Amino acid sequence: MKHIPKINAFYWALIISANTMGETAGDLISQTFNLGYGGGTVALLILFLIVLSISIYSKNQKPLLYWTVITVASTLGTTISDFLSRTLSVTYLGVTQETGYIYATVLLVFALAFTFGIWKWYSKTDTIEGGLSKRTEFLYWLAILTSSTLGTAFGDLLAHDTPLGFAGGTLLLVGLLMVVVLLVFFTTVARELLYWLAIILTHPIGATMGDYLTKPEGMNLGNIKASLVLVFVFIVVIATGKLVLKKQPA
Fold this sequence. Notes:
The protein is mainly α.
């Protein structure tokens, strides 16, 4: 049985950093490198399957490998979301239009619910707290990928299709995440449920923060500069976490 890294403040800081980096890296691959949403998705899917296979068949859960899969999943989720919302089209009442953020978000909500349903049908005992078998580890990563894709679509929905914009969307999502944090400390709600609620919320936070860094409506750093900045932030968070852990008494 494998266990995910210890869930603490540094874990969530890395999750948000990885999600934000995944948003900018996804745009970098599909837009700046001109692979397109479809081409970028195919390339990243191959990479995701490679690192996922290494993770599943490794004997122990190595932190570096875990965060590599998280980052690749977040990047892949960005390109999948963009492919669903901006490339695919639907026909309604004889009118063909892009799928859009709303359709993509609804579709991904059902996909995530289906993934959790399969997980619970297959095993009611394998959890993030109790440990994951190879099959449930695959379902865990599938849920991470789906929630990443959902988060990107929902973040784009808030940023582009509502008056909130990038900054307002981020503030709303951070507020919702704070509600989850309060539930952790002041209620007896199942920690497994709260974990996944937090995971789902951190993805759109990363998406809107990433867009705020790269888009003209935000800081307009562009995909390359923003990605480099976020890689630096990611490394700083990791280094800080290790430094704090070393100073803690055994």
